[in-house]
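Page 42, continued from yesterday. The earlier attempt failed because a stray header line got pasted into the input along with the sequence. Redoing it now with the clean sequence only.
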Amino acid sequence: MNVKSKKSLQIVIVAILAMTVMCTTATAADLRLSKESIPPGATYTVGDTINYELVVENTHTTCNATLDVWDDYPNGTSALLAHNVDIPPGESRTYYTSYVTTSADVPRACNLLRVEGTQCGVSAYLSLGTCNYVNPPPTPTPTPPPPDVPATSPIGLVALVGLLGIFGAGMIVRRR
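This time it went through. Structure tokens are written below.
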């Protein structure tokens, strides 16, 4: 076999391998994720709880998807919602999670739905992020102190005279 025909044979083998891989690869188009806060589009304040509805759908027509479903929270922690969940073709799974906002989430809390696993025997990975606006906590309005009533004001003098009158009357009653 000469060099030219050996090179042609290598190209044909590479082309056949490429077509085989393309026909068995599960793409992101075969999985669909949706994530929504409940209620959708709400704005939150520090300390509020954001509730999420997460949906993982297998849109493939013949292959099951075996997946780990993760929820990655804004504070850097993650929750494994399902391990090795098997989703048949055309079916979906729905999960509900919640997150309590903190001051670190201002001005927005971004949360990530992530799936990892296999579909049609090939590795599958897909993620979807959503963000919600988070306002800082309201600034408390200071309560003004009660006004001082000096003894020399008209109200203060009336009160002082009244007390002296009661005290004096008490002394007179005691003497008798």
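Notes: The chain has two helices and eight strands.
Reminder to self: strip header lines before submitting.
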